[in-house]
Amino acid sequence: MAFTMVELMVAMAIVGLLLLAISSAVTLSTRTMSIAIEGATPRRSETARLLERITADLRLAMRFEEPLAPDVVEFTVPDLDDDDQPDRVRWEWSGSPDYELTRLVDLSDDATVPVPTVEATDVHDFDLTYLTRTWGEPAPPATVTGDEGLLVHHDDDPPTAPGPRVLFVMTDAGGPTAQEISRENLMLTWGWSVDRITAASDDTDYLAAAALADVAYISEDVQSSDVERKLRDVTIGVVNEEINLSDHLGFSTSFGFPAPASVLAIDVATHPVTATLGTGSALLFTGDQAVTQLASTPDERSPDLLSLGVWDGSPALAVLDRNARLTGASGGTDRLGFETIFPHECGKSEYDKDHVATQVTLVEGAVVTSLSAYLHLYGDKKVRFGLYTDVAGEPGTLLAETDWVELEEGLGWQTLPLATPTPLTPGTYWLALGMERDVTFFFDATGGRTRYSGEDPTDGMMPEWFDTYGPSPNERRISIYANYDATDFAAGRRVAMPWGGNSFDINALTDDGRTLVRRAIEWAADPSPDDPGVPLAVTKDDWPAQCFLPELPVNTMGWSISQILIAIKADPADLGGKVRFELRYTGVDDRPGAEILQETAEIPVTTWGTDNYTWYQIPFDPETDLNPSVEVCLVVRGKNDENAFVKIDRAGSPSPRTYLVESPDRAVTWSAPYGNDDMRIYVYGNYTTGGPPEW
Hints:
Blueprint: E1 5-9, E2 14-18, E3 25-29, H1 40-59, E4 63-64, E5 72-77, E6 87-93, E7 101-106, E8 117-120, E9 143-145, E10 149-153, E11 165-170, H2 178-189, E12 193-198, H3 203-210, E13 215-218, H4 224-227, E14 237-240, E15 255-261, E16 263-266, E17 280-283, E18 289-294, E19 306-311, E20 314-320, E21 325-326, E22 333-337, E23 344-345, E24 354-362, E25 366-377, E26 381-391, E27 394-401, E28 405-407, E29 410-424, E30 427-435, E31 439-444, E32 450-453, E33 468-469, E34 477-478, E35 480-486, E36 488-489, E37 494-496, H5 511-525, E38 534-538, E39 543-548, E40 556-570, E41 578-586, E42 592-599, E43 603-604, E44 614-619, E45 632-638, E46 644-649, E47 658-663, E48 678-679, E49 681-690
Parallel strand pairs: 1-3, 11-12, 11-13, 13-14, 14-37
Antiparallel strand pairs: 1-2, 4-5, 5-6, 6-7, 7-8, 9-49, 10-49, 15-18, 16-17, 16-19, 19-20, 20-37, 21-36, 22-35, 23-31, 24-30, 24-32, 25-29, 25-31, 25-35, 26-27, 26-28, 26-30, 31-34, 32-33, 38-46, 39-45, 39-47, 40-44, 40-46, 40-49, 41-42, 41-43, 41-45, 46-48
C-alpha cells in the first residue's frame, strides 16, 4: 500500500512529515517509552534522540509494508548502497520479557541475512497508530468468477400442474411409524395425493394400487423381504429408501452399510433431481445421519445407472431412466426372428448390394449380440447384417450392424457378431441383411412383412431406411434371427435415495434435503407419453427461440453459458431430419439478432425418441463472455420439413426476463413474445463480478 504523508505522534509532540509520491498519512504514536537511563533529563534526552532517529528514517519512507501493526513498522527507503534499488528499514518492539526496540536495515545488494540492532532497552507501552487516507481514484476491486451453477430454469412440471399421486409403501398402512407419518406429512404439505399400502401386501394389491398412482415411495422402515420384486415391473416411477431392495429394483447387486454423514458430494448438477444443488458438497442433514451406498464396482451396477451424488467414493444418490437395464435379471439366451428354413429361395441375381429387412416382435427385454441368416453363397461373397427400429410398420432407424464380411461358398446358417451388444426393450423391430450378387436368402411368401431397398450396404447400412421398392403388400418372412441375452428394463423411472438405516431421521433434513425428496418424486413420476406441455414444431422454416437473461449480481462484469438442457423429441413423420442449436443476442426489438455467438453441429433427430420428451444436454463454450445487460436466445433450427418438437408450457417460467419467439421464415422475421409460453430449459454457467457478488 502507498502513502503520501507520515504523521508521527509521540508523548507530547506531533511531527508532520510530507512523503514524496506517497498517498496516505501515517501517525506513529508511542504512549510511553520508559528507557533505563538515570535521571529525568537524561531520560528525556534519550527519548528525544530515539524519536529523532525514527523520524529521520520515516522522512525517507517510500512505501509501507502491510499489515500495519502496533509494534512494528516496515518501509522501503531510497537506495542506501548505490545499487539503484530501494532498501528496507524495519523498527520493531519486542514487548515482554525483553522490552527491546530494534532497528533492521536490509540492503538490496547484501546477500547475507540482516541482523537487527538494539536501539533501546526497557521500553514499555510502545504503540504505533496509523492514520490513513486514500488519495486519487481507488484501485478497482479484484474480479471474482463463481463456479458453474443453475442460472435459468423452467421446471419439468409447470406450477399449475397437479402434483403426483404417491403410493406410499410403509410398514403397516393402518399403523405407520412416526418416521413414516413425517414423510407423509411432508408430501401432503406440497399438496400431493398420498395413498398408503402395507409392504407385505400381495402382488395383486400392488398392481391395483400402482394403476392409480404416478409414483411409489418406499419407506426405509419397511422390511425388504415384504417387498422384494413386487414393484420391479410396474410402469410408474419408484423412489426407494430401503438399501436392501437395490438388487430387487435393478440398481446394483451389492451395497454398503449405512454410515454417518451430513453432506453428499454432488457430481452431476445438470439432472432435474439435483439441478438446484450445484456440484460439490451438499448439506442434506442438520447433523450426521445414516448414508447408504450402492455397489462400488461398475460391474455390480446397472450399466445404465447414473450416479448423481457419491459418498466415500461410491454412488449414494442414483437414477435409472425409463428403459434402463436392470440388475438381477432372470438371464438366459434366446432368439428373435425366424429359425425355420423356409422353402423358397430368391434369385441369384435378384439382389446385388441391396438391403432386405423382415419384421419381428420381441416380447421381453434383450441384449442382442449377433445375427444369423440362412444363406446360399455361390462363391466367396460379402454380406452384412443389421437391426432397425419400427416406425408405423416400416423400417426406421438403424440401431446396430455387423461388419462387411466375406464368407466362404456354401449353404447354411451364417452368424455375424454386432460391433456392440445392443439392448432392446419389448416391441417391434426389423432384421436386415445386405449382400453381394450371387447370395440368396430363403423365405416364406405369407405370414410376415418384408421390405427391400436398392441402397448399397458396402460402406454401411442406411442410417435411416428409405427408398423401399417391391410388391405391396409384401407378406414374406425371411430365415433370419437375432441372438440375445434376456434382460430386464425399467418400465418406469427409478431413484435410489442416499439414506437409510434404522437410525435415520427424516426430520433432520435441511431445506436442500427436503427439496431433493420433492424433485426425486417429481422426476420419477413424470408421466409418459402424456407429458404436460405443448409441442412446438421445428422445421426447415419454423425456428423457435427461447430468450432469457438470468438474475445476476449488480456488480456482474460478464457471464457465460456452459450447457443448456432442453426438452425435445423427434417428429415421427420424418426421422431423417436434423436440428442445430444456436446462441444469439437479442437486437433492439428484443428479437434474436443476426450474429451467431455459438452453434452446434447438426444433430440427427433419431438422437431422441418419438413418444417421450428427452432432456437433451447441449454443451457450449464457457469461455464466451456475455453482456450482463442483454438477453441471449437459444435458437432451434431444423433442416427438413418435419424434424422435432420442443416442449413448451403456457403457465409461464419461474425465471424472470424469459420469453419465447418464433420465426416462420428462417430468422428473417420474428414473432412477438408468446405471452406466458416458454420452452422447458435449464441453463447452466457462471458469472464474473468486480469483487464479491452484490445482490
